[in-house]
Amino acid sequence: MRALPVPVLAYAAFAESASSHPINKSLQWAYGKEIDRTRVSDLQEISGNGVIAKVDGMEVAAGNDKLIKHLNIPYRACHQTGTIIHMAINGKYAGHIVISDIIKPHSKAAIVELKKAGVDKTVMLTRQ
Q: pTM here?
């Protein structure tokens, strides 16, 4: 994975900082610094799409393809596996962030143990 320009990650972390969506925690962890929420205003959480907020007076949109299309901002599609967060700053596309997880080393053993305990079917639930 290519290193992100810090401002894009910072704007994403700030814009999502007041969101109730779990992506908020992933972005804040990746940003790695404390979020001064006084720098964020006019937060609009658009269910199933993302957020739009002012960060330091700049309009920041962070969300999925639907949000960027709704805002009529040309963007570059991302075909990686994971949760894709497209970023726009002041109406211009700034890039995207991919949030993904890795299979934990103990996952296979845990499923084997579940089967031994009588669990016939296991499923993985994800959100995309």
A: 0.74
